[in-house]
Design goal:
Length: about 325
Amino acid sequence: MDDSKFGSEDSRGYWSPNERISYGPTFAWPPQPWAFLKWFFAFPGYLLPWNLLYAVFAVGIWVYLTPSLERFETPSLGLMALMLGRNLGLAVLVYGAWHLWLYVWRLQDTAFKYNRNWPSEDSAVFLFKNQTYDNMFWTLASGVPIWTAYELLLLWAYANGYASMINPAENPVGFVALFFLVPFVHEVGFYFAHRLLHWPPLYRVAHKLHHRNVNPGPWSGLSMHPIEHVIYFSSILIFFVVPAHPIHMINLASRPGLAPAQGHTGFDRVVLGDKSTWNTSYYAHYLHHRYHEVNYADGMVPLDKWFGSFHDGSPEADAAMKARRRKFRQANGTST
């Protein structure tokens, strides 16, 4: 498919979409109720596809892939291994599917790929000199075990009464409402954790490992230093103070655990046929990997706009970013 109908390629080979990055109307002022409703039910929009998908996914994981809560009162090594195996299987399924489609089978070649190059297979920057193998190692050897440890901690807390648990039969409104709260908790938690990881000491020690992926692929999403994984998944701890059901905890945990796959595909759209494409754009986060200092959030809550780090992909946003860099260098007495 000809991606020039949707965007353009610059002289360095970087492809960018014509459509500028924007936020939904949730926080628009004055309020725009009609625009909000259209966005809420649109595809893609707030509910579809990802928020509904992860809510349904959480219910399925709880019902079919999670042992009874009583078993977590005193978790055994066997139970811990079972939970780890469950999450390893989910990670391989989700990250592997994106990687197979776009990078192994290359069913659309480089159409809609932001950086036309493929991941490095001979670079000393990465373990095994291979970007994909390196990313898989950090994802499966560190990311998934730490994700699992957080889930085990919360399930133990629910089983022993250290975390308040709501009953969906007694409080159906609160139970459903929490599904709509989870994406915002994830977004806000991710933004502030991400800003913390860009604090120079933490960046040098931990976050730098993730940012080696200037040309990310699906497995880059959870390829992080263990210190970063501990910080990254910490939003799950909110359920020690917010009464919820383990399904909501799983819903929140599966987002940082699995959603980075589609957030790091490196492609703007998935080609589904000769004339059809699926808009899976995470261009905002791709720009973060390219420039490092913009778009720290996922884009639902306009935190980057509020804190002055938003880049919408336009030449004007480039100019504003360069002006911030000059100002920072001047303030720190470095060369402009």
